[in-house]
Amino acid sequence: MSPRLHASGILAAGLAACLLASCATTTRREALVPARVAAARQTAQPIRASVSGGGEFTAMQLPGITNDDFRQALESSLVQSGMFQAAGGGGYQLEAFIATIDQPVMGFSMTVNLDVSYTLRHRGATVWRKAIHSSYEAPVGEALVGATRIRLATEGAARNNIAELIRQLDTRHGRGH
Questions:
Q1: At 127, is the pLDDT very low, low, confident or very high (cuts 50, 70, 90)?
Q2: Which of 32, 67, 137, 152 is the most exposed place for a label (fewest CB within 10 A)?
């Protein structure tokens, strides 16, 4: 391969990445909340979440999930499920670590994989811990612009992760407090 051809290929790839990043928009907080997932397990205690590992954009400058947006989506989803009475202190503490957001750079159907590690504490004691993997595929029919499909797939992976968290907490062994 000639140096000129190699340099042109690198330039074209860089330009494509820049164009994709410039069109990329961050995820929307309200789009991270799953459709109502009802929980059979209920407590009169509040839930307070803390999140780390997130950001506005991923390392590839694709739409990320901010810690604050994910925290608010977690708290509102857990309250909407009926599992917890309200968001706030004095009850359970849920720690979430966004470990990976695996996103494609391009493609027709965009599948995003999300891994989040959760630890639920009550009165300082760990009562539940689990890493949850989720994914979501946004086909080309969902949005024509690739950056929009990546954002939609990222939001979908987050919704699926939170819905799975609620299902897992609802079926955990032992009785709730």
A1: very high
A2: 137
The reported pTM is 0.82
Taking residue 132's Cβ as centre, other Cβ atoms within 10 Å add up to 19
Q: Which tokens in the block code for residue 175?
A: 């009785």
> In this structure, what DSSP letter does residue 84 have?
S
Domain layout of the chain by residue ranges:
3-170
Task: Report whether 136 contacts 159 (CB < 8 A).
Answer: yes
CA distance 154 to 148: 10
Report CA 4 to chain centroid distance, whole Å: 41
Structural contact between residues 97 and 116, judged by C-beta atoms closer than 8 angstroms = yes
Q: CB atoms < 10 A from the CB of 100, how many?
A: 12
CB 111, CB 154: distance < 8 Å: no
Strand partners, 114: 101, 134
Asked: is 3-170 a CATH 3.40.50.10190 domain? The reply is no
Which tens digit of pLDDT belongs to each residue from 57-88?
887 788 899 999 999 999 999 999 999 999 99
For residues 21 and 19, give the distance between their C-alpha atoms in angstroms, rounded to a whole number. 5
Q: Are 175 and 40 in contact (CB under 8 A)?
A: no
Q: How many residues belong to the chain?
A: 177
**What tokens does 112 get?**
């995003």
